[in-house]
Amino acid sequence: MTLLDIPRVIRKIDAMRPAATTALTVVLGVILSTASALAYEGTPVQGLLQNGAGPVTDGLYTVKVGLWTEESAGSLVWTEIHPAVPVGDGLFSLQLGSFTELPATVWRDNDALWVSVSVEQEPELPRRPLSAVPWAEVAAFAREAGALACTGCIGASQLGITADEYGSFALLTPSGLAGSALVQDASGFVGVNQGAPVVALDVGGAIRVASTSAPCTPTIEGAIQYDPASKQLRFCNGVAWAAVGGSFEGLSRGFVVQNGNGSQVSGYQLRVDVTDFVLLYGSLFQVLAPGGTQVPYCFEQPNGECGKAASNAVWVKLPAIAASSSATFTFQKAAANGAEAAPQVFDFYEDFGAAIDLVRWQIATDTCTPTVSNGELRSGSANSNNGECGLMSSSALLSDSLTLEARLSVALSGPSDSDPIVAAVSSDYTTTATHNNSAVGWVCDDEGPSHSVYYGVGQASAFSTANIRGATFSVRVNLHAGQVQACLSVDGSCSSFQSRGTGRDRIFVGSTAFGGIPWSYDWVRVRRYASTALTGAWQ
User: Fold this and answer.
1) For 209-213, 251-255, 433-437, which range has the lowest pLDDT when averaged over its residues?
2) Torsion angle of alpha carbons 490, 494, 498, 504, nearest 10°?
3) Nearest alpha carbon to residue 511 among 397, 427, 416, 375
4) Is residue 431 packed enough to be buried (19+ CB in 10 Å), middle (13-18) or exposed (0-12)?
5) pLDDT tens for residues 161-190?
6) Where are the alpha helices (DSSP H) in 115-191?
7) Among residues 220, 260, 253, which one has the least CA distance to residue 239?
8) Residue 357: which residues within 8 A CB-CB, separation 6 or more?
9) Over the stretch 442-460, which tens digit does the pLDDT of each residue have?
């Protein structure tokens, strides 16, 4: 508490009762509590009563106090009588407002006030000014603010709040609930200018944000939702939640595939460089066809195999794309790896990751006995015969508009030669005396060296003289429109297309006449072929 404005008033008065002496001095202090700064609880007043001999006799005294608008004369705005104020050693203390209510309007309506005190029946002592305190200053500011003119303000007549027993509340406009400015229903849904919100946040029915667990129904069509599981922003199409497509930064990116052929292409495997996408969005994603259907893909590995381990290139198996048209696919960030195993992407796939599967392969052991080791098909040692050595598929896997592809290595040296082959053959290939003549595809005489495309009985066309000893490379055999073409990665060369014989629908990889220079095959696969390769570009 702070002692403010302590006047020293000395006045002689006649004693009105035995407890007082004939000379009385009053020292008056008006003390205002700082605790009253937030809410008025009364104003303490303290004083000292004394006569010529010192403090007055201890006892109870009648004290009258008042608040005036002027130091002299003026108007009395409030007064009260304290009938029994305890006095000890001449000291007394009282609280203004203890017997008569001291309304807040006294402070609001008066800029300055003076305190008057009279003891027993004596005349009023000289008035002393009442100093301001912090809560009074705030009140003065509030009085000035309340006098400001306001145009277009929302007053009590324009604002209403209603609530019901179900926990709903509404901030009403003059038109009532139908035009409510703000509504929260019992489900916790909030509506802005929407009397009956249907999602977590409903702004006039035009902007709707649903909770992460809300189902998509026709009622909330057009609402958006964040899915924490897939870390996707989705929208309700009236039936189901669908990922937001396009090039939404941080979520997905469009990839446009162009089919330049005059006919529909279906099931085509397209290699896509995803370096930039993975850099921006990460390696966890899925690929969506137009309409939102997920399509299979696998990551290309350093040795050309395909699997689930992330890399910067993928092979995507595309659905049907109409002739001379384009389709936009969406690469969309996901919570988990969307890649598939290679057999889900390619028409046929073998990576020799396990022992030779005798259900899908027949082993040709005329000049060697091939085995699987360290994920590769290996030639082993040469024997005395001069015939084929390798694997032939047990069933017909090849037809028109396909590419037979393999990756292999040839040792740098050995007893004689290697003569590797990747070709389409007939079911009796391993029992035919003139093996090369019944193969359709790539055959290499590594002694020459000479690379040829075989396309019929006794028919071959040389197209490269690249040395393959000590090299690792891939070979493609394209079967299309009754013709065959062979391509070699070691020098990028390709043969011309040649008309091929019919009935050659089995895969064969190995040697035509193994002479002792070891070979090994990493993988073999079959994918779709189109005369005009499909292309793609990021949006």
Assistant:
1) 433-437
2) 40
3) 416
4) exposed
5) 665 555 555 565 555 544 556 878 888 888
6) 134-146
7) 220
8) none
9) 999 998 899 999 997 778 9
Pairing relationship of beta strands 190-192 and 201-203 according to DSSP bridges: parallel
Polymer length of the chain: 539
Pseudo-torsion of CA 207, 210, 214, 215, nearest 10°?
30
Q: What is the pLDDT at residue 32?
A: 40
**Which residues are CB-neighbours of 87 under 8 A, at least 6 positions away?**
49, 56, 58, 59, 60, 61
Full DSSP string of 467-495:
--TT-EEEEEEEEETTEEEEEETTTTEEP
pLDDT tens-place string over residues 192-207: 878 788 888 888 888 8
DSSP 59-121: EEEEEEEEEESSSSSS-EEEEEEEEEEEEBTTEEEEEETSSS---THHHHS-S-EEEEEEETT
Tokens of 486: 């062979």
> How far, in Å, CA of 307 to CA of 353, rounded?
12
| CA gap 217, 239 in Å, rounded | 6
Question: H/E element holding 423?
Answer: strand 420-425
* Distance of alpha carbon 34 from the chain centroid: 52
**Chain centre to alpha carbon of residue 522:** 40
Instruction: For residue 79, give both structure tokens.
Output: 């007064």
List the end-to-end C-alpha distance of the chain, in Å, as a whole number. 74
**Amino acid found at 508:** F
